[in-house]
Amino acid sequence: MTSEARDVKVRAVLDQALARLDPWLLQHGRSVEAQPGSRHALDDEAAFPFPISHACQHALAHALDHLQTLRSVVVKAGDLPMSVKYRV
């Protein structure tokens, strides 16, 4: 596979992942509280006094920030950084 073909493949994967970002954010928002009856709330109850849901939401917030950064750098710029294949 040529490097150009790999770039096209990487771009397609990124486009697919980034296309799901905005609908997901609209559906789930950026709530910091576990919803009553949710799995996170049940985990928080079981692990009291340690709020497990905060760790999950913290990790998810970082993942979302990374996706938004990728969108800003790759999609808006229209170019792939040389090392993107090794970092993403």
What does this structure look like?
The protein is mostly helical. It has one domain. Helices cover 69% and strands 0% of the residues. Helix 1 packs across helix 4. The radius of gyration is 17 Å and the shape is elongated.
Brief summary:
By secondary structure, the chain is mostly helical. The chain contains 5 helices and no strands. The radius of gyration is 17 Å and the shape is elongated.
Describe the secondary-structure layout:
Layout: H1 3-19, H2 21-28, H3 39-46, H4 52-75, H5 84-87
Helix pairs in contact: 1-4
Could you name the key traits of this structure?
mainly alpha; 88 residues
Strand content: under 5%
Dominant shape: elongated
Helix content: 55-70%
Number of strands: 0
Element string (H = helix, E = strand): HHHHH
Distance between the termini: 19 Å
- Count of DSSP H/I helices: 5
- Poorly predicted runs are none
Mean pLDDT: 78
Radius of gyration: 17 Å
Q: Main β-sheet, in a few words?
A: none
Structural category is: mainly alpha
Number of domains as seen in the coordinates: 1
